[in-house]
Design a protein that fits this description.
Helices cover 70% and strands 1% of the residues. The chain is mostly helical. Strands 1-2 form a two-stranded antiparallel sheet. Helix 3 packs antiparallel against helix 5, helix 8 runs antiparallel to helix 10 and helix 12 packs antiparallel against helix 20.
Length: 447
């Protein structure tokens, strides 16, 4: 008997959806693409909350590519479907999550009406509505979400983005340029955002209690891809994670708990020896990015002039109390005719003002406090590692206007529910209460 896992089926459908959209002729691929999309949408209704989260995290590294491809309406539908199914499956409303979502929707709607940016209404609303699904699902103690499934879904989504980029654009890719100054973005369209997905998925996989053989393949594949992106913040985060687990391994006396990391170091050392030329080339590329602006290193040069941009925005906030209090909407950079701030915390104030920042802090601490209360384990540093990675990454990325904002927050907070795999007894399964539970099986007919 061969079981076709619903999660793998969803990945297959989405892969078909993207491949057909970008490789076939438009009139030929569109009908098939829509069928694949419809099948993926229907699968949401047959899955539970864990399924929706895993599918969304698999989708996240490719969302920007879908927007650029002119199919943003389908992207918004994909993002909103889990929200709709959550309302249908779970009759009990989380009023705290509803209040947070309503407040942010109200602030954003005021900005859209004032600035007359009506084309932003659906994208912005669909992104904010995801907040209700994320907050209410994470704090529902009857919802079973396995961290291993979510971690591998995000990691596979990032790898899928890289592999399909090469498949679709093989004729146009000059690999030699990625060994020089060019930075690899895959379908994420920005190397820094792509690096965030890579770092977050690595952190989530490293803290798992039980690892599979392909976890080694996933981690080394992600690190190799990360070297191509040449993201300074991401490389720093990976190094900090390696130092943390090395210190933990030494402190624990090479116990069974660090077996996976010990093997990771040994395999990594062998791979570095075998591919030493590649590693040296990538490190040289990274060093060139860091020191290309001269030996007299300043904060402005190190941050690629982002610190100057952030100081400029902070000065504008200080002299404008109305802007400081209410913000100017998620596309504030158009008003200032400048670039985005490259800092999510500053992004929140510029978009929603201090009022929006207060709501965001309330969301963050309410969710963390609720997760600590319902967690099945005694929390330690491992549980907070993905969240720490995200909090640090937010200092160099503007994520508020991105469709993936609340999904990556969801991914970073999942480990606070517990790292151990839950025992899915029949009693627990009944508590999950999906609308329909299907098992895809292929078996021989009996005669």
């Amino acid at each position: 008997m061969l079981r076709l896992n619903k999660q793998r089926l969803a990945y297959f459908l989405f892969a078909s959806y993207i491949l057909l959209a970008f490789t076939g002729k438009w009139l030929v691929s569109l009908p098939v693409m829509l069928v694949a999309f419809a099948a993926a949408e229907v699968s949401f209704f047959f899955g539970d909350d864990e399924y929706c989260i895993c599918f969304a995290l698999f989708l996240v590294p490719n969302i920007r590519m879908m927007d650029v491809g002119g199919i943003q309406v389908l992207t918004n539908l994909m993002l909103l479907t889990p929200v709709a199914t959550r309302f249908i499956r779970v009759r009990k409303i989380n009023f705290t999550a509803l209040a947070h979502t309503t407040l942010l929707l109200g602030i954003d709607l005021i900005h859209i009406m004032y600035n007359r940016n009506f084309e932003d209404l659906i994208p912005n609303a669909s992104s904010i509505l995801v907040l209700y699904f994320v907050e209410s699902t994470l704090l529902d103690k009857n919802t079973i979400i396995r961290l291993s499934h979510a971690a591998r879904a995000l990691a596979l989504g990032a790898i899928f983005s890289a592999v399909f980029y090469f498949i679709i654009y093989t004729k146009y890719i000059d690999m030699s340029r990625y060994f020089r100054g060019y930075r690899y973005t895959a379908f994420a369209s920005d190397p820094n955002y792509y690096s965030l997905y890579i770092c977050l998925s690595i952190a989530m996989i490293l803290i798992l209690k039980k690892h599979l053989i392909y976890d080694y393949i996933i981690i080394f594949s992600l690190i190799a891809i990360e070297l191509f992106t040449a993201s300074k913040m991401a490389i720093l985060l990976i190094l900090l994670m390696l130092i943390y687990f090395s210190a933990k391994m030494i402190y624990s006396g090479f116990s069974r708990k660090t077996k996976f990391f010990r093997r990771l170091i040994i395999i990594g050392a062998v791979l570095v020896a075998v591919f030493s030329q590649f590693v040296v080339t990538m490190i040289d590329k990274l060093m060139t990015r860091v020191f290309a602006r001269g030996t007299n290193m300043t904060l402005d040069k190190l941050t690629t002039r982002r610190s100057t941009l952030q100081v400029m925005y902070m000065n504008k906030l200080i002299v404008n109390p109305i802007l400081l209090l209410f913000g100017y909407g998620v596309h504030y950079n158009k008003f200032f005719e400048s670039n985005i701030s490259h800092n999510t915390y500053l992004d929140i104030v510029l978009s929603w003002g201090l009022i929006g920042l207060a709501v965001f802090i309330s969301i963050f601490f309410t969710t963390i406090r609720g997760l600590v209360a319902i967690s099945s384990e005694r929390l330690n540093t491992d549980h907070f590692l993905p969240l720490i990675v995200l909090v640090i990454s937010f200092f160099s990325l503007s994520c508020v206007s991105a469709s993936m904002f609340w999904w990556i927050i969801c991914a970073a907070l999942l480990s606070l529910r517990g790292i151990e795999e839950p025992q899915l007894t029949e009693r627990v399964l009944r508590g999950r209460a999906p609308m329909v539970r299907l098992r895809f099986r292929f078996h021989r007919a009996s005669h």
